[in-house]
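ESCALATION

Customer reports they have been waiting on this structure for their group meeting. Please prioritize. Original submission:
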Amino acid sequence: MRLAVISDVHGNAPALDAVLEHIAGEHVDAIVLLGDHVSGPIDPKGAAERLMGLDAVAIRGNHDRWTVDTGSRGAGAVDRFAQGRLSAEQLTWLAGLPATAEVGDEIFVCHGTPENDETPWLDNFYDGRTTTLPSEEEVAGHARGIDSAVILCGHTHIARTLRLSDGRLIANPGSVGMQLVRGSPDAHYAIVEKGRRGWQTALIAVPYDTEAAAKLAEANGFPGWGESIRHGWAGPESLG
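Update from on-call: job pushed to the front of the queue and completed.
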């Protein structure tokens, strides 16, 4: 089995288009969407249209919940912006997505951790320019009770793959639509496949027209997002 894994598009349709074009040449068996699909100031409606048109396994992220219910704790300006751009059909699709899913017999997918879509898993969130990989004990704790050989998560926007001591693979594909801190503005996704030696991961960065995407964010009233999208060096404080 060969899967394309997409997370954290955040309404960045130009970045998503670049990733989908790249995936088209990868001969995958399925596409998995890990949440935070539309919340962002670029083109949430276009991103939703493209994602809904895929024959993909899809779950929701925290920003998907907040886009559906902008009065909930944690919801912000980009969630309200996205809700205002989506059609009733798109909001219904978003509201109906499950928190977790399984793909076949060997793959479990979630957004943050299996218990909470707001909790980071493989990396703690940014402290200035630094992120910290938790201990194996902490990482394994969130995987307790999940027997799947492969566990996929998103949320942190940081691409990482690791193995627990028991052999289980956990992978975060990074973010398609919003890069921070690390100076890699390209759109990120992953290919996960089972070969003769077991499951393996390729973390992929795809260049796209970040200048055009940044100008759309700025034109829609989010200059900090424009700076982050354009260069990938800004921190999360730029997204307020």
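Sent to customer with the following note: The longest strand covers residues 187-195.
Escalation resolved.
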